[in-house]
Every structure is written in structure tokens, then in C-alpha cells.
Amino acid sequence: FPGQGAQWPAMAQELLRTCAPFRAEIEACAAALEPHVEWSLLDVLEQRPGAASLDRVDVVQPTLFAMMAGLAATWRALGVVPEVVVGHSQGEIGAAYCAGVLSLDDAAMLVARRSQLIRALSGTGGMAAVQLSREELDERSRRIDPSGEELAIAVDNGGTSMVVSGTLGAVDALLAELEADGVFARKVKVDYASHCAQVEPIQAQMLEACATIQPRVGHTPMMSTVDLRLVDGPELDGSYWFRNLRQRVRFGEAVAQLLDSGFSAFVEVSPHPLMGVPLAGAFEARGAGDETLFLPTLRRDQGGLEVLDGRLAELALAGAPIDWSRHFEASGEAPQLPLPTYAFQRRRFWIDRPTRTADAGPAKATDDAAPAADNPLATLAAAALEDGDLDALADELDLDQIERVMLAKLAPKLGRWHVRGAQERLAATWRHRVEWARVNPSVRGAAASPRWCLAHIPDPETGQPDPSTAALLEALRRAGQEPTLLRCEPGWTREDYRRALAEGMGVDAGPGARALPVDALLSTLALAEGEPTDGRPPSLETLERTTALLQGLIDLDAEALVPTLPRLWVLTRGAAGPHDLRAPEQAMLWGLGAVAGVEHVSLWGGCLDLPPALTDALDDPHALASALSLALASDESQLALRGGQVQAKRLVACPDHGRSGAQPAWSGTALITGGTGAIGGHTARWLAREGIQRLVLTSRRGPWAPGAAELEAELVALGPSVELVACDVADPEALGALLDRLRREGPPLR
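User: That's the sequence. What structure does it adopt?
Assistant: C-alpha cells below.
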């Protein structure tokens, strides 16, 4: 349960319409909050005219508590019951309620009064996110404020993810010092300072407000980020909740303890993930990146029940225990299967594929690579054709004299077919295709916060970064990164780029100069492509500029003024990836990268393709930051970001759909009646694995049958084209029309 910052305007609207457990919990929260606030929770969540603003701390914190409560109730209704809960700052109130330690009335009163008292502190302090270890930050803070009364570490998320809190003067002094030393730091958008001495003036009011709270032993253990231990419940009284506001949030240490205790799946209960990056760092620090799952609940602009169904599937695939009876009870979609009216005879009708014990390989031109155990007669025929011993084959087949004459006439043609089949199978081993595979940044050891320098061409009217680059810059800042900028001009040559890079690194002073304080260059030149100028396509201009930028880097490297130079990464949009390829002209940059990656290994980083709609990538800044971190931390040079997932380009061998012996060649169209049912689905999967060219599945409901969409996606992934048709095979006219259409369209029906 995270703290503040996960909110977005329509975060509850879809679930309020479609999910009964969520709406019931939200309505209960609204009733519990009503005595303590002057605004309506449902007005805020449904964005009604005149609703209170989420910019107010005394509105956003109770609203986020209600969202956490509603989402936790939904998870439980879907069959997911936590083994332990942990909260971050105000998120501990949601965790305590979810664990059964606080009643809803107590939790609602607590979050309302807590946020109202915080609002009274507005203007008295500030907070800032800092990328330093706890020890380094503590040392710097004490130099500025030895007493610890004006400046303190407020949040320890683990590793180098820290937040400081204090008076405005002390926070500004620390930020100035960090900026001078090149350390990343930025202010948090709040005008108060929590988790430090600045909240002590409201201690008496906080304790008075909490005097009526009656904590109890919960039904779920809770890991306290205040005391750093599992709590039973009764100790979470008024004094605890003031310490929750006053003391440091020890989230990183709490997660480390949970990992050491064997927990391997972490679900963030919020409308948008905030803790993904800190958790990924914690997983890596404990060497648990391969075995540990982080799962958000919702994401910005993705707030429907289908998102939760997808999350549930991910949990199930990860091996998490799920009470499926609750899921079906909540969704009303429990499958109803008619039982047979007679006992099964247990006869098996599935067609088994022959199992190869070894790959014979193309030892000779006529080798059919078919083991005798699979088809002894086919093996005998192959040997007879190769050796010219047709009498042995005729004896085995018990042919009469006329049939022997016919066999002798057929033998040359059969031999040519046999050799051609072997040649085709040999050629199949040389064929490869491109696939895109998901890459988990936490598994590959991605850097937590790399330092990027963005090469861009400014807007000619404003002189500022173009809108695409500006949006990218803002997204990276929201993800906790602070890139620097390399200003370029449209008509620059390689020498101009070399000079700009040299100035940025201060290498004109001669050998031994300092290196550019960045990990890599990131070209955004392709993001702002506009209309053609002077009849030249913008993609060609982008290619020329990127080439000149790379050449400038090569020239600077040849001068050997610094030991190492940052590598160049190029961003494209819709040029490459698993889908949404709307800008194939930008693939020229990927062609440049294929050459540069071979000829200039130390200077070329790679290409990262973003979705054609840039907002799809920028709305999830943490996914974008993870992709860029992975680019630096791994040997991947061809990456794409789609749907919040990082995918890498792979060259894989094409499946060999060749058939040995007497097996048929699965070309053409297979029509399966009842294709969306259980038996039809099994048959379709088998045909798809065997290499069928086209599948047509009919049923009464066709594409609207339960599970049809999932079956179609599964079959398409296996290779064939798939069509779902609503057709009652008991209707001669409908079936005849379908058969006529399939015969016209081809490939031929089998």
C-alpha cells in the first residue's frame, strides 16, 4: 500500500460501473468518511461538477485510502488473499484496515484527520527526492543541520532511493549542494514536511484525534515500516499513528526482511504503481530478481476489470495460491459442464505425434530422417528406393506381378520426391525468423537511475526542446531521472557535432580532461519528424543527422582525449517491434545501427522503439525508465517498448513443418465444426502445431463464444491464420454458403 502520488482523475470510474465488490467498498468508505469531511468521495471519484480537487492533501489522501480499500476488497473477491501486508507512509492506514487491525470507521476518521492536520502545515516546509545512499545523505544532512531538527531523511526506499524533509531553507541548501556536486535531486510537489520534526506542532492534536481508535488483533500479519517488525495489531494506537507521521519510512528495510523471509510475490494495491523501481532494486540486492514478482493493480488510463483479470492470470502463472471459488463467485462466470449419462469407457482417440528419439540429420541426399520405430514400412520403402532393391519392397508389400510392374514404373518418380523432401528439410534448418521476447529489467540487472544526455533539435520558434523531447524529458523526471541536454541544429555537419560533444565534455582543454558525467547519449531526433521540407522526406534528414552525430562521436573518439565516451542510443517511433509498425521509414535508423554496432562496438549502444503514439510510452514513466536502464545494463541493442513491457529482438530458427515418411503435408484450410468447444479446440491446437496453413472454426456463437478470443490468440501464436465463424452446421443454407466462400477464397479445403 503506497503513499501519496498514485492518483489520476478517472481512476475509479470503470470499476465503479463494472465491479460490484469495488463499488460496495467505495460506498462503505464514503459513508465512513462523511462525518469527518465536507466533500463527497463519490463526487470526487466520479468527477462530478463541483467535486473537491485532488490537488488538496485533505482530499487526495482519504480518496487514495478509499481506492486502496476498494482494490483490496476486489483482490479478495477474486480469490487473492495476502499472507502479509506492508504500507508506505499513509499507506499503512490502508494496510492496517486490510489486515483487520483497524475498523473502517477508525481508518476513515484517522486518514481524514491526519490529512486535515497536514494541510494546516502548508507552507512550513518541503521535501525532495535524492539519489544517494542513506549513509551519504545522512552525512550531508548533518553538515547542513547537525541538530537534525531542520533537515532529516524522511523516506528510505532502499539503495539510493531517498527522500529528505525539513524547513524550506534547509532543503534548498541541500539541493544547491547536491546540484553543485552533480548528484540527482529534485523537489517533491508538496508544501509541507512530513516524517521529520516539522510535524511536532500537531502532535497534541493528532493524539487527541486518535484517542478513540480501538486497534485489534488482525487476521493478516502487518510489517510495520515504522518499527520494522511484524505487528499483531493492538500496538497500533494513537501514539503509533503519530510516529507513522513523524518518523522515517523504512520501506526498503521492510521489503528486505520480507524477501529474507521467503516472500516472492509483491502486489501494489494502488491506482498506479509507485514502488516498482524501489522493489526491483531490492529484488536485485537480494539476488531475487529471477524468482520474485512485482505486480501493480491498475495503471493510469487502465482501470477496468479486464486489467485485474490479467493481473490475476500473472499471479496464477507465478504459482501464487488463488482461491478460484471466490473468483467465480465474484465474476459469476463459473463454468457449467454437463455430466455424461453413462460411464466413460476410457478409450483414447487423440492422435499422438511421433516422438523422435534423436535427430538423424541430413547425412545423405536421400536421408528421410524417419526412425524405424515411427514408421517401419516408410523406412523400408526409403531404403529400397535408395538401393534400387524393388523386389524386397514388393515382397514386403505382397504385390502381384501387375503391381510389381506398376511399382517399377513409379519408382523413379518416388525417388525424385524422396530426394526433394530431404533437400527441403535440409534447407529448413537454414531458415530463421525475427521474434520479440519480453525482457524483465530486474532480471537483467538494469541500473536504477542512469544518467542520460538527450541530443535534440530545439523548436525553431521557442528555442526550447521540441514537444516530443520535452514530454520525454518530463516523463523521465517523473521517474526520478534528470537527463542533461545536448542542443543540436538542423544543418550541423559531423564537425559541428564533434565540437558540441567536445564542449559538453570539456575535452578541448587537452588530454586528461574529465569525461562527460553521463552514461549514454540518447538521440531524440526521430521523435519530432514533421512534414517533408524541400521535397525531402523527414526520415531521410533524420538519418543524415543521426549519421553525422555518430560520425562526430567517432571523430572525437579517434582523438583519444578521454579514456571512454558514452555510447549512442537512438529512439524511434513505430519503426520496429512486435506490432504497431506505423513508421517503417524510420527503420533506416535500425539499419544504420546494424552496421554501427559491428564497426563501432564501443560507441554504438542501440535502438529503442517507442509506440507510435508517444503518450503510450510517456504515461508510464517508470516503464520507460526501466527500458532505458535495461539498455545500459545489458548487451541488448535492439529493444521495443509496448504496453509497458520491454521486448528484445530475437532471431530464432523457423519451426520445421516438414513431414517424414507417410505423414501428410498440412497445407490448405482445415474446417472444424464445433471449433470453439473443448474437443474442437484440442483439434485446432494439434493442427496448428502440425503446421496447418489456415484454420476456420465454426460454432453457433462463433467469435462470441466463451473463450473464443483467447483460443484465437493461442492458435495465431502457433502460426496459422485463424477465422472464427458463427454458423449452425444444422442449417444447410448457412453451411453451404460458408463452404462456397471458403472454396472461392482458398487455400483449398482439406
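The chain has five domains: 13-120+200-331, 126-193, 376-428, 445-652, 669-745.
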